[in-house]
Specification:
Number of domains: 4
Number of strands: 14
Number of helices: 30
Oligomer: single chain
Radius of gyration: 29 Å
Structural class: alpha/beta
Shape: globular
């Protein structure tokens, strides 16, 4: 049915309605695997076969936890839907739960296994959710259900009676053996409830709820679990690590205190009473194996998925990409040999994969290209994402249009794909190479049909593959106009004129209802000027989005400790950008930056960023900047490791700046003494308060750069971000720079 058959009044009403709703094809790609755009417009049939294959690969590690680690490349052109596929695995309800880690901020000089470990800890301890559950809460619930059930089953009859002491004078009845049956039944009921699978079994707080229903206090349950772990644990290094991890999870779940677990995973694991203290790499490997042992015992697969590989390897445009790629892939192969039970998924552009892989060492190539068995599908060497067929494109279009038309009176009388025709959808599906290109064309034609020539502001924008446009403005959709089940939606509503020409060159057809318009030169000049004016606003919106996500990730108690490496990487990225774009702080400018300088034997604390600040024509100051984030017993140890940077020979720093959470700036005991001893030696150091907002800025910064860089042609520099950085990070830059006199 064509639009010409529609009553003119209904047609105009529908067009007016769509104008108010906005273009549903504006958000045509996902920024990252956690982007809500994926769930809003998800079509289950899209890449269903590929998703099923990947889930079956992951399930092999569920049913046989010690399966040798393997890598599966998922290759596709830019815009093929790789990130959307990863989102559907991470947040979709198909299959069972798995711990899915999506690493970022790769530094070539960082030990790869250490990099993976802290990405795992950041995912585990952070506030991000997978399938509506925080990983720490999900893993903790499963682990403590298992441990508490085993603990209760291991108790003797007398010990079970002691769990439920009779109230008041009930002890007299207990003396004569009365009431014992009820206590034993309650214990058995709790054992059965903990062992019974149910829909609520994985909900946070379910273990505490069951204990409360049985009349067992959480404090008593915690003591029982700790005693059981003490009795059943060995005394070697691996057993001690497992012991501490289990008790940390027990405290987190039963007493709702995550600090002990976070402290051990970032500090305590390196302070165990070893007969011979291991080196830094051995400590990392031992903790990684201990964590994997816990996950394998629970039959929870660990999946490490590298999304948008081009961003990881080409994050800094002036780095040697081939050396970075060689280090990266060699690290994956080494990790596959050192650790069993990990499924590595690599989502990459075909061109990038074909560019780097043939130049690698032959053995590395063989391991990366080793076929993987997929139950029910045979073996696969890699997975290729092709453009979806016409039938699936129709479903994708429907998923976008239906929420926009929902609520319009008599909208069911409109054609199925209004305001498009089947011929238009068919032609786009058959001529565009990727799903993203198709959605761009639908966006273009939607604008022409709905807004026509009367809206000069509705023009196309050059694509940025992560969901943000440097030259666009976002408009928030009113709550009363949102589709059912959607909490919020933002529409990108500005586009530069040049992309329209490209789109029209690729597609010679246009809706017959809308006349073709060619804006004049004056309109083009006005458009360019408008875009330049909108750029700062769009950058601020991009910053606000990523900043909000980062703050949510860092909210939980132990999240800061787990994100130490990501924060250090963010600090390095910020300083590198300031160096590359000549951003000054007062009279000071950067002459050289080392993103992460590692030293000593402590994997968490032994790292600082080096920044050489120079003032006019003076000699540069070599400034070391470290994150002093540890709490409790780890606080003095963290400080001691950071201060040991002064003892490195030859000297690498002239000045040391430590960023410390503003709520805990006071030094006491050993820490205070160490600071005073340093000052007596005439060493220039200072503590700077770090707010949660400052941490969120550092955490978000690499992701913001990736969002901007992903849409650039290789070799093309980033847009100038001096104004944005000085606006959003002015205070932080002053804290990590040499003092600015008279400012």
């Amino acid at each position: 049915m064509s639009q010409l058959l529609i009553n003119e009044t209904n047609h105009q009403n529908a067009i007016d309605w769509l104008k108010r709703q906005g273009n549903p094809f504006r958000n045509y790609f996902a920024r990252n695997p956690d982007d809500e755009v994926c769930s809003i417009y998800h079509v289950p049939e899209l890449y269903a076969r590929e998703r099923e294959q990947l889930l079956r690969v992951v399930d092999q590690y569920r049913y046989t936890p010690n399966t040798h680690s393997e890598v599966v490349p998922i290759l596709g052109n830019k815009g093929a839907g790789k990130t959307h596929l990863l989102h559907s695995i991470k947040h979709g309800m198909e299959g069972n739960w798995q711990l899915l880690v999506t690493p970022g901020s790769y530094q070539r000089d960082t030990d790869f296994l250490e990099y993976l470990l802290f990405q795992l800890l950041d995912t585990l301890l952070g506030g991000g959710k997978q399938r509506n559950s925080r990983p720490l809460e999900y893993v903790g619930e499963q682990l403590i259900r298992m441990l508490l059930s085993r603990t209760l089953a291991d108790l003797s009859s007398e010990e079970r009676l002691d769990l439920f002491p009779p109230p008041g004078l009930g002890w007299i009845a207990k003396t004569f053996g009365l009431g014992s049956t009820q206590a034993l039944e309650r214990t058995q009921w709790l054992i059965d409830a903990l062992s019974r699978p149910s829909q609520d079994a994985k909900s946070p707080g379910m273990v505490r709820k069951l204990c409360d229903e049985a009349g067992l206090t959480c404090n008593r349950a915690f003591e029982l679990v700790c005693d059981y772990v003490d009795r059943t644990s060995g005394h070697d290094a691996a057993a001690m690590m497992r012991h501490a991890i289990l008790q940390g999870f027990a405290r987190s779940v039963l007493l709702q205190d995550e600090t002990e677990l976070a402290s051990f995973l970032t500090y305590g694991f390196a302070e165990l009473d070893f007969k011979m203290h291991p080196c830094r790499q051995d400590l990392v490997l031992a903790l990684f194996k201990a964590m994997m042992g816990v996950m394998q015992e629970l039959r929870l697969p660990v999946v490490i998925a590298f999304d948008q590989l081009e961003d990881l390897l080409l994050a800094r445009r002036n780095d040697d990409a081939h050396k970075t790629a060689e280090t990266f892939f060699a690290g994956i192969v080494k990790a596959m040999h050192q650790l069993d039970g990990i499924s590595f998924l690599v989502f990459a552009e075909r061109g990038l994969w074909n560019r780097f892989i043939p130049s690698l060492d032959g053995y590395i190539q063989d391991r990366l290209n080793n076929p993987v068995h997929v139950p029910g599908y045979g073996t696969i060497k890699c997975m290729k994402l092709e453009a979806p067929p016409f039938e699936l494109v129709r479903k994708v279009v429907m998923a976008r249009l239906e929420p926009a038309l929902h609520g319009l009176p008599n909208f069911k009388s409109l054609p199925e794909f209004y305001p498009f025709t089947l011929e238009q959808i068919d032609r786009i599906a058959r001529t565009e190479p990727t799903l993203r290109d198709m959605l761009q064309q639908f966006r273009h034609f939607f604008d022409k049909i709905v807004y026509g020539a009367e809206s000069e502001s509705i023009t196309e924008v050059a694509p940025s593959s992560v969901g943000y446009h440097v030259d666009s403005v976002e408009m928030e959709v009113p709550l009363d106009q949102l589709p059912e089940g959607v909490r919020s939606m933002v529409i990108l509503d500005a586009t530069p004129e040049t992309q329209i020409g490209k789109a029209e060159h690729r597609n010679s057809f246009s809706p017959t209802q809308v006349p073709e318009t060619q804006p004049g030169n004056d309109a083009g000049l006005k458009e360019e000027k408008r875009i330049q004016e909108l750029q700062p606003e769009a950058l601020s919106l991009l910053w606000a989005k990523e900043f909000s996500l980062a703050k949510e990730q860092l909210m939980p108690e132990g999240a800061l400790a787990g994100a130490t490496k990501e924060l250090q990487a963010g600090l390095g990225s910020l300083l590198h950008l300031c160096h590359d774009q000549g951003i000054k702080v007062g009279p000071w400018r950067l002459q050289h930056v080392v993103s992460e300088w590692t030293f000593g034997d402590h994997p968490t604390y032994g790292a600082i960023t080096l920044a050489h600040w120079v003032c006019r024509d003076g000699q540069p100051w070599k400034v070391g900047i470290g994150l002093f984030l540890a709490n409790g017993q780890g606080k003095s140890r963290d400080l001691a490791v950071k201060l040991s940077a002064w003892d490195l020979e030859p000297a690498v720093i002239d000045h040391l700046i430590l960023l410390r959470p503003e709520a805990d700036m006071m030094l006491v005991g050993k820490g205070k003494q160490a600071w005073q001893d340093m000052e007596k030696k005439g060493r220039h150091s200072r503590l700077e308060p770090l707010t949660l907002d400052g941490c969120a800025s550092l955490y978000a910064f690499p992701r913001i750069l990736a969002s901007l860089a992903e849409g650039l042609v290789e070799g093309q520099p980033l847009p100038n971000l001096a104004n944005l950085v000085q606006e959003k990070c002015e205070k932080l830059l002053e804290q990590i720079c040499m003092p600015v006199q008279g400012e």
